[in-house]
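INTERNAL TRANSFER SHEET
From: sequence group
To: structure group
Subject: Fe2OG dioxygenase domain-containing protein

Please process the attached sequence and return the structure record in the designated field. Keep the field labels unchanged so the import script can parse them.
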Amino acid sequence: MQTRYVDRPIPRISLRDFESRIDQITSELVDAAENVGFFTLTDHGISTQEIEEMFSTAESFFALPDEVKATVPWNANNVGWEKNSQIRPSTGQPDTKESYQLQFGENMTSLWVSDEHLPGFKTKSLAFMHGVQQVSEQLMRCFARGLGFEEGFFIKCHDISRPVEQTTMRLLHYFALPEEPNGKTYHRAGAHADWDFLTLLFQKEGQSGLEICPGREVVTEFGIGDEWTKVDARTGDIVCNIGDLLMSWSDDRFKSTFHRVKAPSEKGDYFGDRYSIAYFNQPCKDSLIQGPLKKYPMVTGEEFTANAMKRNFAALQEKLKTMEVAA
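Return from structure group:
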């Protein structure tokens, strides 16, 4: 089926003079969360040079031999390196990528690539992560105000200094693909919604592919729409999307939007290696989650993540069953 594209304006929100403009910024963020589910941040305080240096650090990691990267393997705590292993319910096939997932706390014990293989990697990564967390906390203050919570409410629920924190930064490398696929179907990242609170994404200029598809009405849905909008890649911007957690925490007022990294398929698409950095704000395991209207039962951060993974697994099994029947 041919993809239908629709031009939708994606809000660009400046965080300039944050403290004096917090009311205006809150209004813009709430409007974007209610009506689009995606927005782009400018004037966020992380320089283009810092972003480019983090990309360079990530590329140095991915350039290591697989046997070296395998010394920091992915595990059930959602950290470590994986390659061609993430299968989306939307496609039933692995994404054509590798990633290295990092956290702040004890889950990373023995899972930082050693200085012997990549000097300074841990120090550089943590410094960047702390910078992104500062931007995240500004957004959390605004969303708390918009939903009628105490201003520091979401920050406390996502306290990265605690052993039970779950916030994750994911370094991503999508593999170069053949310009003539000869009938083979590739998926860089199949359509999905994130199950975190909020995702902050860094892209590299010229490495396109990100697309969004709004339309989700309730957080418990696993439906996928069919009208897509391309999102430009600009190195200095941060592209943000609402996750399932914030959708639930807002009683479905804020929208968790489906998105994908589309595999190139026509002239003008980008076929080369694509790098991006995603920062997933995830709550502490013991944070209590329930919206102001109490639309959903109260759950902990750990329970919310487990329930989201169960829904994802069930949807994947259904997709694979459908593919078996079709074959």
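Handover comment: The CA atoms of residues 103 and 168 lie 5 Å apart. The domain at 12-326 is CATH 2.60.120.330 (Jelly Rolls).
Transfer complete.
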